[in-house]
Amino acid sequence: MNSLRALPTMIRIALILLVIVTVKNAQFARGQDATAVTAFKSLPPDGVEIAGDLMAELKVAVADVRRQLLLSVAAFNDADQWQPDVEVFIRAVEMAVDQNLFYKPRDVDQAKKMLQIAQQRIDAVREGKRGLALLTVGAAGDNAPRLLAGGFVSSIDGSVQPYGIVLPIDFDPLSKTLRRLDVWLHGRGDTATEIPFLSERLAKTGTYPSDDAITLHPFGRHCNAFKFAGEVDVYESIAHVSKLFAVDPHKTSIRGFSMGGAGCWHLAAHNPGRWFAANPGAGFVDTIRYQGWDESKMPYEPGDWGRRLMNWYDVPPWVENLRNTNVIAYSGEVDKQRQAAELMIEAGRAVDMNLLHTIGVGMGHKIDEPSAQAIEQRMSQWATQADGSYRNKINLVTHTLRYNKIDWLSLESMKEHWMPAVVTAQLVPPATIQIESNNANQIRLDFTRLGWPLASADTRIEINGQVFAGPPAISRQPLVIELISAEDGWYELDPSDSADSGLRKRHGLQGPMDDAFMAPFLFVLPSRPCRHGSVERFTQSEARRARDVWQRVMRGNDRVVIDTDLTQDQIANYNLICFGDFYGNRFLSSIANQLPVQWKDNQIKIGSQTFDASSHALAMVYPNPKNPNRYVVVNSGLTFREFSNSTNSRQIAMLPDWAVVDITKPADGIFPGRIAAADFFDESWQVKSPEPAPARRVQ
User: Fold this and answer.
1) What is the pLDDT of residues 270-296, one digit of tens each?
2) Does residue 8 have a cis bond before it (omega within 30 degrees)?
3) How confident is the model at residue 521 (pLDDT cuts 50, 70, 90)?
4) 147-385: which CATH topology?
5) pLDDT (tens digit per residue) in 528-549
6) What is the pLDDT, as a whole number, of residue 14?
7) Is the pLDDT of residue 8 over 50?
8) Nearby residues of 299 by Cβ (< 8 Å), 6 or more positions away
9) Cα 489 versus chain centre, distance
10) Nearest 5°: phi and psi at 596?
11) What b/e readout covers 252-290, taking b as 16+ CB neighbours within 10 angstroms?
């Protein structure tokens, strides 16, 4: 092993990956992991075979344009401003070549067109073009001046992700007038990877572009219903285009159809304070009913924690958040996906809330022109009313601190994650804040953005029937009030109090495992083998799968390091996704004594449960003891597996904060093996007791 460590880093990584691939192939040959591969479709699907001479020509061309880009990057000191808008086209072709994503003969021609646009933009950069002048290079057709496509660098993995823009007809690049921004989420297309997406964005205006608004089309990592990294990309693409155009931050809407409608529902319900309006069309809003599992047996038993995890992306439990924005849904009269809006309307009625629903007469899975016009009229009306002022009353519902804020109200701590937390807060003149809460432990009232909106006076806090004096406030001056719950009631938290002492779940550090992939992360591979050969084979297989899913399904770059090369800067800046046991992975070995689980030679112990270490493996997420502001993940990538490839409604978190996997049972496309035990950590990141029943696949 010392000789391995002496090799250059990239050679060591290559050797370890070769072992991973070899072991994986050996498993397939023995039939140990074949179910996960053969029983479910690939996403994206494998392409057709391209003639060898055409592929060779394409590889030479893409390498040449890549070289031209690197020369230009070296020649100019402002590459960060324009490089993504060039690289996005080169990367699209590179990924199609590397992953065999050509489905029709014309796809090769489209790839050549991408490289042509990249070269044209490189030439434009050398001529001094930047910003909008550069983005206009590549569009074609009657609408060419309105159609733009570019890229931004993802904070999660450093990959360049594509987006499209449709400018309004009367757009004036010299005008300083702030424009409304409509974010349009696209539908599902298994083969609509980077090249088809960029080609369409440079040729078509989309479903119904507004005459008044700039329309942003995020790629959203292709085909995940704008969840996980796709969700983060929506917000990062908004931030990116807001630097390029005069966008009114108070007049941003979220819209979409089909898969995009599903994304619209969840983004609107999770973050209603971000949008002046939401316009979801078709799609889905839950897993069980959309899959028909409420009428037939589920193909797996998720356990209590699995059902609670469904509340991450199931939208009906979040319906009351939609009181904080405007919503107009659309459904075709005979579209099966009309179910989405009807389920949300049903959920709204249960809490005395009405949602607007436009129905296209006689329409299937399509938007008719009269409905589009009626919806646009309503959206324009709401946009006129949106002025960015504080909401007088806020209804906040959440199941996780991942989504903890609406306007001036945020929930900083919960009593129990994945149970509904409800906070209703209202401003009452002259200087009172009335609050009702459930499952809330710490609340923040932040009036920094516009200052205190009521009269200058000593504030009055009314919370759950308790009344006490708050801090003095000066009208239009910044004010922040922190409230914390104790056994004897609520009280104001003094800034000098130690509410943050000790480990606790908080926004961005609340789990589960999948949450670690919504911020910058780094795969950390082991430099030593695990203690047991069976565990070694399992962890190598899971490492390979995690990286492959990130590259193919999430269309990303996988940053990788060997544990012995891990730096302090990397520990400071990344969630660390570690593979191996507490012996084989040296970083895990260095923090093993600071984790709430034990993984020794002969056993894994978590809480009161013990497991044979030769036939079980641990997967978990936990605040990194060497940097509690970041996660460490053990032996897990994204937890949804091949079972999810056929429908976005199955792309959900499948494991909680920790799980013990019985590796004598092979991965089945749903779980990595038999889940012997699993659960969430408590709010202090400690093991709960008693432990719930495990999840399993139904035979």
Assistant:
1) 999 999 999 999 999 999 999 999 988
2) no
3) very high
4) Rossmann fold (3.40.50)
5) 999 999 999 999 999 999 999 9
6) 43
7) no
8) 293, 643, 670, 697, 698
9) 36
10) -85, 20
11) bbbbbbbbbbbbbbbbbbbbbebbbbbbbbbbbbbbebb
Angle between helices 79-99 and 52-75 (to 10 degrees): 160
Residue in the structure block whose two tokens are 């129905």: 359
Q: Is 590 helix (H, G, I), strand (E, B) or coil?
A: helix
Q: Whole-structure pTM over 0.85, yes or no?
A: yes
For residue 316, the one-letter residue type is P
Cα distances (Å, whole numbers) of residue 289 to 125, 227, 298, 348, 465: 51, 19, 11, 17, 38
- Give residue limits of the domains in the chain: 2-30+508-697, 147-385, 393-492
pLDDT tens track for 479-519: 999 999 999 999 999 876 655 568 999 999 999 999 999 99
Q: Are strands 432-438 and 457-463 parallel, antiparallel or unpaired?
A: parallel
537: burial class by Cβ within 10 Å (0-12, 13-18, 19+)?
buried
Show the tokens assigned to 390. 């504080």
- Strand boundaries in 374-456, DSSP class E: 393-398, 405-406, 409-414, 421-428, 432-438, 440-446
CA distance 237 to 683: 33
**Mean per-residue pLDDT, 577-603:** 97
Chain position carrying tokens 């300083």: 176
Cα gap 601→531, rounded to integer Å: 7
State how far the Cα of 267 lies from the Cα of 322, in Å rounded to an integer: 10
Angle of helix 338-349 relative to helix 259-270, nearest 10 degrees? 20
To 10 degrees, what angle do helices 9-30 and 533-552 make? Answer: 100
